[in-house]
Amino acid sequence: MKKTEKQKVNKEMQFKGHSQRTPLLMMFFLIALFFFFALDLVLGSVNIPLGDTFSVLLGKVPLDESSEVIIMNLRLPRALAAAFGGAALAVAGLLMQTLFRNPLAGPFILGISSGASLGVAIIVLLFGGVSAATLPQMLRSTGFLGSATVAIAAFIGSSAVLMIVLFVSRKIDSNVTILILGLMFGYITDSLVTVLIHFSDPEKVKAFSEWTFGTFDVRWAEISILVPVIIIALILSFLLTKPLNALLLGEEYATSMGMSLSRTRSYLIVITALLAGIVTAFCGPIAFLGVAVPHLCKGVFVTADHRILVPGCTLLGGGLALFADMIAHLPGSNLTLPLSSVTSMLGAPVIIWVILYGNKLGRGVSV
Predict the structure, then answer these.
(1) What's the whole-model pTM score?
(2) How far is CA 305 from CA 97, 173, 240, 242, 357, in A?
(3) What is the crossing angle of helices 21-42 and 50-57, to 10°?
(4) Among 107, 143, 215, 244, which lies 20 to 30 A Cα-Cα from 94?
(5) How many beta carbons lie within 10 A of that of residue 228, not counting itself?
(6) Residues of the chain with pLDDT > 90: what percent?
(7) What is the phi-psi region of residue 259: left when phi exceeds 0, alpha when psi lies from -120 to 50, beta otherwise?
(8) What distance lies between CA 274 and its chain's CA centroid?
(9) What is the pLDDT of residue 16?
(10) Span 102-131, average pLDDT
């Protein structure tokens, strides 16, 4: 049997088996997701008893009335943003790793994050007389429109890069070329951000830097947009599991099955831009979740079947994001760590593990 045929058989074998343990693993990750969700509501600078937390969620008045304000106005929207944001980044990373057949591809590989950063840099660095401390308060004090200013700027920036990538993708057949061009677009936008930073005063630069740290601290106005968009994009991702599986078997095989490569590629790019762009717009750039979680999922389920990986990444990504958010807020302390530094500390060891042992520890570890 030829080498290419053996590889194709190996890929097909990854779509079979493990049917007995898969539901158990899914149930475990679902329970873990709810567990970390509850912990994220309970733990913080002020630890709230679990009983009071459930009383607030059930609409009852807790013994300490301040607990209701903390949970409903701060922690519940933050936990929802973490759960859905982590799921979005994980699935977006999975789509990009499959499309480009690159185990180190992530949701921001096409320059989406850089485009969002440029949009925010233009807004924040050109705000006159606004300090790092007063910018968030000023934006939120003006209601929904004010609170959405930075998010709109980020989404416009990421959408502009997306339009360029989509235009190029229709002219070029090679995924590798699109990957390289996406990286180049990212470098161009990053250079423009650097120029803006160079000519801005320190207070504005500090305000922009705080946005780049990433945070799930959003309000209900942002949640009302963030969650529905992510749900729709995740559903669309699951509907594309069959084309994704076909891509793993090679472009020739996918074409022979009647799949349009250019159309599928456009769908995947748009969905990834939706998932990564909306999270970046409201939460800032959050590192490593999109790169690390798909590998963890493939290693745990030992499969390349996207019918398993898409829901698996949704649960695992949401759970890890909640765990990272809980660590970032340092329970029992008034200090807060930059979220991206926490996700990097969690994600970087996974990438090192993939590089050193990925080929030895299971068929599903790399694409």
Answers:
(1) 0.84
(2) 13, 25, 12, 9, 21
(3) 100
(4) 215
(5) 12
(6) 23
(7) beta
(8) 10
(9) 53
(10) 75
Distances, alpha carbon 316 to alpha carbons 84, 110, 261, in Å: 11, 23, 29
Per residue in 239-271, pLDDT (tens digit) is 999 989 888 877 677 777 777 777 888 888 889
d(CA 310, CA 244): 10
pLDDT band at 365 (very low <50, low <70, confident <90, very high): very low
Between residues 356 and 187, which one has the greater pLDDT? Answer: 187
Mean pLDDT, rounded, for 19-44: 89
Dist CA 92 CA 108 (whole Å): 9
Could you give the C-alpha distances from 190 to 179, 184, 196, 279, 300, in angstroms and in order?
17, 10, 10, 19, 36
Rounded distance between C-alpha atoms, residue 352 and residue 295, angstroms: 11
Q: Which domains does the chain have, with CATH numbers?
A: 22-357 (1.10.3470.10)
The per-residue b/e assignment along 276-295, b for 16 or more CB within 10 angstroms, e otherwise, is bbbbbbbbbbbbbbbbbbbb
Kindly report which listed range (69-73, 106-110, 189-193) carries the lowest average pLDDT score.
106-110
CB-based contacts of 17: which residues, under 8 Å, 6+ apart? 303
Alpha carbons 30 and 341: distance in angstroms, whole number = 25
Element (H, E) at 195: helix 175-198
Q: How far apart are CA 229 and CA 136, in angstroms?
A: 23
| Long-range pairs of 12-18 with CB within 8 A, sequence gap ≥ 24 | 12/249, 13/363, 14/302, 14/303, 14/304, 14/305, 14/363, 14/364, 15/245, 15/303, 15/304, 15/305, 17/303, 18/301, 18/302, 18/303
pLDDT band at 141 (very low <50, low <70, confident <90, very high): very low
CA 165/CA 98 separation, integer angstroms? 17
Q: What SS3 state is found at 189? A: helix
Matching residue, tokens 């840099």: 121
Cα 247 to Cα 263: distance, rounded to the nearest angstrom = 13
178 Cβ contact partners less than 8 Å away, ≥ 6 residues apart = 100, 110, 165, 168, 169, 172, 265
Secondary element (H or E) of residue 69: helix 65-70
